[in-house]
Amino acid sequence: MIKDTFPAVESTMSVPRWRSLLFVPAHVSRFVGTAHERGADGVILDLEDSVPQDQKGEARKQLPECVAKVARNGASVLVRVNRGLRALAADLDAAVMAGVHALVLPKTDSADWVSEIANAVSELEQERDLPLGRIRFLAQIETPGALHRLAAIASAHPRMVAMALGPEDFGAAVGGAPEFDLLLTPNLSVLFAARAAGLLPLGFVGSIGDLSDTDKLREAAVRARRLGFAGALAIHPTQVAIFNEAFSPSDQELEWAHKVLAAENDASTQGRGAFALDGKMVDAPVIRRAREIIAMGPKA
Fold this sequence. Notes:
alpha/beta; TIM Barrel; 2 domains; eight-stranded parallel beta sheet; globular
């Protein structure tokens, strides 16, 4: 394998805002055709679990057309590839193209695996005269063994941009149900590793497959944002609006953040690094939180 000579300029690419990433089976044309209307920040064209084995080849052939369709309203385009070597090779050959922003890597369990895929993607980019390093990676953590290697996985390659726990697969791997008690610790582990490496932590503590209780999903998403998660993966269009709202700051939060920064400006002219606002102390960590809230808000 040729060593990946990843350019420094690409390693400083900005982190995207992905409040919601909607899975769409790449072989189902009616879902692909309407995906751009759902309001998701990104669309994941799935070549893995949602595509039957005998239709994966056709899904790969349709991928260029699918990429163009789902990107019509400006959403990021991601492609989830398969884990097995033969299927993965075919997926990479089909998916490394202009218009694809990231690959979703299922069952990621080591930094070496991420590096091997990164090398292959770099070779394809070079062969196809694509910008080297433009395609990023979202790693799905779906096995207990991966939990011991999260820090290495998160920092395995500059292509890494996000991490998410796969609750259904993780639950199955440990022989348990994807419920709160089981999923809290691994979700927090993914959150901490992603934040430490400067990646987007995606997800919430619960099952992604429960489509019936939208109030429960909304509560879980709001809690996830309070924990520090930046967004979540959706398997149904009804989940998109819930995630977009839950992972966006409220009007009250934005008002507070702007108030903090205005007070900081006044304090700095007086040579003060910490100050009181509405009966509470404000210092560097609070100011940082205010800036992050404003960055998550609507763009002017």
